[in-house]
Amino acid sequence: MDTPRKKYIVANWKMNFTTGEASLYLDKLSKRIQPSRKVQVVLAPSTISLQPLSLQINRRQFKLSAQNFYWREYGAYTGEVALSQIRGFVDYAIVGHSERRYVFNESEEDIAQKVAAAIRSNITPILCIGETALDRKEGETAAAIYSQLTSGLHQVSKEDISKVIIAYEPVWAISSNKNAKPAKPIDIIEAERIIRKHIAKLYGKEAAEEISVLYGGSVNKDTAPAYLQLEGIDGLLIGNASLIADQFCAIVEIAKGV
Ligand code: PGA
Fold first, then answer.
1. SS3 (DSSP) at 61
2. Of the listed 99, 131, 169, 192, which one is catalytic?
3. Which of 68, 219, 248 to mutate to test the pocket of ligand 1 (most atoms within 8 A of CB)?
4. Nearest atom in ligand 1 to 175's CA
5. In testing the pocket of ligand 1, which one of 168, 169, 221 has its CB within 8 Å of the most ligand atoms?
């Protein structure tokens, strides 16, 4: 692969931090993380904090991401937030996170609609895919990846595929799951190859080489170096460790050094 792709370090704060806490935490991070052309740092706070943080951030230093949204433009959808309401605040949106899929029963069709809606709004969707522990045990890892990629991307044209980021997040490796254990680099490389092979089948070889593939699941500053050195892995999606400034800043520094 000769095209150097940018590294992404994405912080998924999940349902943590009040707006005040998020603002103080951002202030702390902004003093420690210098803007870099090589590494794009993306912060995904709760929806409620997007607007105030969007006023506070230096966009050369950080970009914001939604953790979730609804794909319709507006209407009678109690409790939901449309992209038209957050468009000015975010550059990225996480779609299909396993907590959305399995805790909130988000359907494959909703996920596909969200990916398409984000692209229409000029927001980069970070499509999360990954097998469950059971899929892996039954030798269905590749099948699970194929199926989530095919359905999640089914509304994305060849022209738009470069606007998507894929995050490989095996469900069994995400720290919120009981008995979570970080994936081994070899598992990640295997999955990354499956992902690019399938993208090549759907969109051609060039698209497969260009698309950014991130890894997520129990990453911390000790495991990050090995992951970031994997050829074909373009960054990390970080939950727990992104809530701790020392951990998160260290991971950003490691990414800059790769
Ligand atoms: P974790 O979360 O780093 O806490 O495992 C990752 C994620 O859920 O995106």
1. coil
2. 169
3. 219
4. 5
5. 169
3-state SS assignment for residue 46: coil
pLDDT by residue, tens only, the chain of 258 residues: 455 689 999 999 999 999 999 999 999 999 999 999 999 999 999 999 999 999 999 999 999 999 999 999 999 999 999 999 999 999 999 999 999 999 999 999 999 999 999 999 999 999 999 999 999 999 999 999 999 999 999 999 999 999 999 999 999 999 988 889 999 999 999 999 999 999 999 999 999 999 999 999 999 999 999 999 999 999 999 999 999 999 999 999 999 999
SS3 251: helix
Q: Among this protein's residues, is 140 annotated catalytic?
A: no
Name the token pair of 8. 């992404």
Pairing of strands 62-66, 39-44: parallel
Closest ligand 1 atom number to CA of residue 12: 9
